[in-house]
């Protein structure tokens, strides 16, 4: 089996993970600093309390599904940061997120290198605010962007406009990912590559329930029906400790066994 390598983005200028510890992380988005909780950060903080206390906003978790922001200083309006040529419009949400997962930059770089100007027809599932969509479009691909949340698709549109990519070939689909794949398979539609960032738990626009451990295997099985005979890429990200990189490696190996290539 190919060794599993952990990668971190090293070329962010508008984002910085300043410190972590005691169930939280101190981050900088542009010039704005946030403290957000993360229950898996079990170690102690390295920086003194006064640096943490100087954050512009803190998110306080009420329970596993909700919380609220304590805003000491309002964020910039508009609040936009950049990664290379990609622009991201940020805003605090009720679930502690701000519309961007900075660690995904390693995937955007990989997409840029893999696409390398080829006019690939790609499918981006659970596409959220469009980081991978923008990276693929900027690299020369055509993208079908699928997300069950209308608000996420609207946010992704804002990001494309801010990045100067709104004229690129993108198709917007507000639908449950699994249902969309089944419909595409019936139509005989195929894609040169698939990108996905499935959540641990979620609900579709019509109340469909998604649970990662239960639904990811059948989603990957369905995806096999819409892959081109010689696909260029498949990228899976899972932001949860419930499924390890080793498990994802084996699942992707099963999915692509008849297509050749390698899994890393």
Automatic annotation (TrEMBL):
Q: Which Gene3D superfamilies match?
A: Golgi alpha-mannosidase II, Vaccinia Virus protein VP39
- One of the GO biological process terms: methylation
- Sorted alphabetically, which keywords does the UniProt record give? Methyltransferase, S-adenosyl-L-methionine, Transferase
Q: Pfam family example for this protein?
A: Methyltrans_SAM
Database matches in SUPFAM superfamilies: S-adenosyl-L-methionine-dependent methyltransferases
Please name the GO terms that the record assigns under molecular function: methyltransferase activity
The segment(s) forming the S-adenosylmethionine-dependent methyltransferase domain are 60-234
Q: What name is this protein filed under?
A: SAM-dependent methyltransferase
